Structures are given as structure tokens and as C-alpha cells.
Amino acid sequence: MARTTTLSDEEILRRARSVFALRGYAARTREVSAAVGLTWGAIIRRFQDKRSLFDQAMAPTPAAPAERQDASLQALLEHLHEQLRRQWPLQLHRRLAAVANADGRSGLSDTLASALRAHAGHGQVRNDLSPAVLAGQVLDLLTGDVAQRFVDGRLDVEPDPLFIDRLLRLLSPCKAQASWTGFNQ
Fold first, then answer.
1. In this predicted model, what pLDDT tens digit does every residue of 126-164 receive, in sequence order?
2. pTM
3. All structural domains of the chain
């Protein structure tokens, strides 16, 4: 009788994530077991219970790497948009399961604020608002765009270049007096 290959925790989480991403916390344990390729008992021995497995499988991905801070603002915004696009379904299921998410979005906000601070030091970003406030507002707009794409079933579509251009114009020092309410015009 051939011995089966041992699955790593990461592989178990990756396989469970695919089920939870589709069904949320309501996924049946037999569905998770089938996707993982282990009995529910074997999974529970490693992850204690369904809630623990769900929390670990649906945990947010790490924020953008620090080296992205040196990238152009356009590249950074496109990268953040892509990261939110990948995270949105996972985060939605986590929120629907009433799982607190204190670290996922703040990591993105901190990364963007740090990058904006660096670009502001070179005069490339408006200075009438702090980098943290700007980051929060830009991330709200990015999140809204990703949320709308999720609702419309268009998450696989690249970000609209006009959308990214409008974000860049809002960050531009020459638009320091621009209103965020005019974003959709």
C-alpha cells in the first residue's frame, strides 16, 4: 500500500480557501474535506476547529512589499488595485462571517501612506493633507472601485486607466485645492 504525501499547512489552507471563497463560512465540512483531500478529523487535528481553519485560510495577504514605495505612483496605485481585487472576495466572506479584520486594510493604508510621504518629499504629491489622510481617501476610492467590480462580476478586468489617471490627478500637487467630490466627473 502506497503512503500518501503529507500536505503542508499552507497547502491545506490554500485548498480550503478555494471552498471558503465560494461558499463562505457556510461551507460544509465535507466540502472542505473533499477539496483538501483529507478527512475532517485529520484537518481538525491540525487546525483545532472550523473557525480556526476558516480564519487562517481567509487571512489577508501581506501588504505591498516595501520596495513598491519607490515605484511610480501609477504603478503603486495599479498594484494596490490588483491586491484589493484579489483580497476582496476573501475579505467579504470574512466580514460576512463576523471575523474582525483589523490588519488587512490598515496594512495597505500604511504602505500607501509611506509611499505618498516619500513622493511628497520630492514634490510629487499634494501637501495640503497628510499622507495618512490621503492614503485613506485613495484607498476608499480604490476599495469602492473593486467593490463595484465585485458586485458587477468584473473582478478579472484590469483597472480602468481613466480611474487611475483621476487618482493621480487628485494626488498631484497642482490639484491641492481639488475636491474629492468631483472624482466621478
1. 988 888 888 888 887 887 787 777 777 776 778 888 999
2. 0.47
3. 9-57 (1.10.10.60), 66-176 (no CATH)
